[in-house]
Amino acid sequence: MKKSFLGWNGRKRTFVLFTLALVLLGVVTLWGQLGAEKALETDFSRKDLAPCLAYPFGTDWMGRDMFLRTLTGLSMSIRIGLLAAGVSALVAVVLGTAAATLGRRVDSVITWVIDLVMGIPHILLLILISYACGRGFRGVVTGVALTHWTSLARVMRGEVLQLKEAPYIQMAEKLGTKRLAIIRKHMLPHLFPQFLVGLILMFPHAILHEASITFLGFGLSPEQPAIGVILSESMKYLAMGKWWLALFPGLLLVLTVVLFDVAGESLRRLLDPGSAHV
Amino acid sequence: MLLEARDITFCYDKNNRKILENFHLQVESQERVGLVAPSGFGKTTLCKILAGYEQPEGGEVLLDGRPLSSYGRYCPVQMIWQHPEQVINPRLRMKAVLEEGDQVEERIVGELGIEPEWLSRYPGELSGGELQRFCIARALGKRTRFLLADEISTMLDLITQSQIWGFLMEECTRRGIGLVAVSHSQPLLERVCTRIQSL
Question: Diameter of chain B by CA atoms?
Fold first, then answer.
């Protein structure tokens, strides 16, 4: 047998990976929060500095520390992404399950709403909702949450419909298992991975949509150091050779999404019987 | 106790042919009844009706003169399915699968040849024959009065088959559980059952 790193088995390695990803995300979020004040500080004596030891990500045209600004922006993005994707996924689970279990009439109403929301272009609906909610953090979160639940709700509906007919669930009923226990023991373990995958796929979507509607001027206000704002501002300076303004925030955004994906994937591996004993 | 199927008529689609028509069956607690019929004659369907999974088009299933549904949450007529992997949730460990049964005794688990180390595994990590033992154990809960065995031994080798049938016969006699066995193998039914009825 191959001797693995530190003699850990696959399960332990996956668990460590999961924890590491979560801790890193947590550190970025916290650090960004704590440095929020300093990220807004302007100092024209240090403007347009290329990356150096004191300012690892350089400074911008107003002398703001890009490292802190990026962290604060990421922290904002992570919070928006998590909140919007979480709410959206929750709506999807509730509506999808309701459609599958509460009878034909409820089903047709919910399916109709899904079709309706899917029929309107995403970005348009997002802008409308965000604008109606007064833009800013709340507007963006509400907008993303209300537009992204549809496809996951469909998946959930299908999954529950299929589960309801599964022989092992019929068997559980005959064995006297209570309804709630059937949902908890038999249905949720099947729905959770779908939920997780939906959540992970939605997270970068939420961040990118936040960035895009902020770019269009319907999202966060321009002085807030969100990743979308940073990227759209730095576009103007890219042509002037200030590559660090876009590169590092962009890389960190990708890294955040990857970290989130790693966390989700390892959690799925820990829970899935197909890989739980690896 | 007496398990009784009265005038059972059943079809899957309204316009389709009737799979069962005015079918009668009476099984006493001390009996072991064998059911034979070619494929597609409704053996499994009959088992599902007797265990309450399907509602018949006409007729009724009675246990001591009362309909099955009046016996509360746990159905006293338990069915063992032909394909164990379909009736076991792939996301539960085997320990949880066993616990779903009605206080299954340790003794039953041991006599069916279930190894203690299997309990911590997932269904995907056991073979069909090993899974079937869990299904049999799970169906033999405290409140089970009748057992329907629908082709339960087709995936087992001959020695295991004889072990399991030997155990089932003894267990049913000891606890006064009535048995309905479905199989394609006439010699097996002749060996196991007290009488044989064809569909």
Answer: 50
Q: Do B81 and A168 touch (CB under 8 A)?
A: no
- For B18, the 3-state DSSP assignment is coil
Q: Which of A166, A175, A277 sits opposite B74 (nearest CB)?
A: A175
Give the dihedral of Cα atoms A220, A226, A231, A233; nearest 10 deg.
Answer: 60
Residue B78 and residue B70: Cα distance in Å, rounded?
15
Residue A183 is classified by DSSP as: I
What mean pLDDT comes out for the span A68-96? 88
Predicted pLDDT at A1: 46
Are residues B119 and B138 in contact, defined by beta-carbon separation less than 8 angstroms? no
Q: Whole-prediction pTM value?
A: 0.75
* Residue B184 within any structural domain of the chain: yes
Number of domains in chain B: 1
The CA distance from A65 to A46, in Å, is 9
B35 occurs within a structural domain: yes
| B142 CB-near residues (< 8 Å, 6+ apart) | B102, B103, B104
Residue B45 falls inside a structural domain: yes
CATH class name, domain A8-40+55-276: mainly alpha
Domain regions of chain A by residue span: 8-40+55-276
Q: Is residue B114 part of a domain?
A: yes
Containing structural domain, residue B95: 31-52+73-198
Contact check, Cβ <8 Å, A176/B88: no
Tens digits of per-residue pLDDT, B27-74? 998 899 999 888 888 888 999 999 989 888 888 899 988 988 888 889
Of B75, B122, B125, the CB nearest to A174: B75
ipTM over 0.90: no
In A, minimum Cα distance to B84 occurs at: A168
Q: Are A167 and B87 in contact (CB < 8 Å)?
A: yes
| pLDDT digits 0-9 by tens, A101-149 | 888 899 999 999 999 999 988 888 989 998 898 888 888 889 988 998 8
CATH number of the domain encompassing residue B188:
3.40.50.300
